[in-house]
Amino acid sequence: MSVWVPVTPHFDVSVPYARALNPITGTNWEGTGVQPDVEVPAEAAFDRACELALRAVAESPAAARPEFRDEIQQALGDLGAANDK
Asked: Which of 18, 33, 47, 85 could cysteine-pair with 1, CB 3.0–4.6 Å?
């Protein structure tokens, strides 16, 4: 958390005044990040996230409707084709 402090009439700076801590480990994740649930190279992360989201939707009750199921399968196919290039 930070607060904006005016330095001049036209210039402010952001000054941190608090630090988030994990209540279990007592550590901060700043500079270390968060361990991902699925490890993939950075350049593949977006496509993998889209695939996982589509697969989750495919398993939902909405996928029981044929028009949704077909759209989901088409999107998964398009995603796979784009990754094959």
From this structure: 18
Prediction pTM value: 0.53
Give me the number of domains the chain comprises.
Answer: 1
Which residues have C-beta within 8 Å of that of residue 50, sequence separation ≥ 6?
79
The pLDDT of residue 85 = 54
Cα gap 48→79, rounded to integer Å: 9
Reduce the DSSP state of residue 24 to 3 states and report it: coil
Residue 13 identity (one-letter amino acid): V
Residues 36-66: tens digit of each pLDDT: 889 999 999 999 999 999 888 888 887 778 8
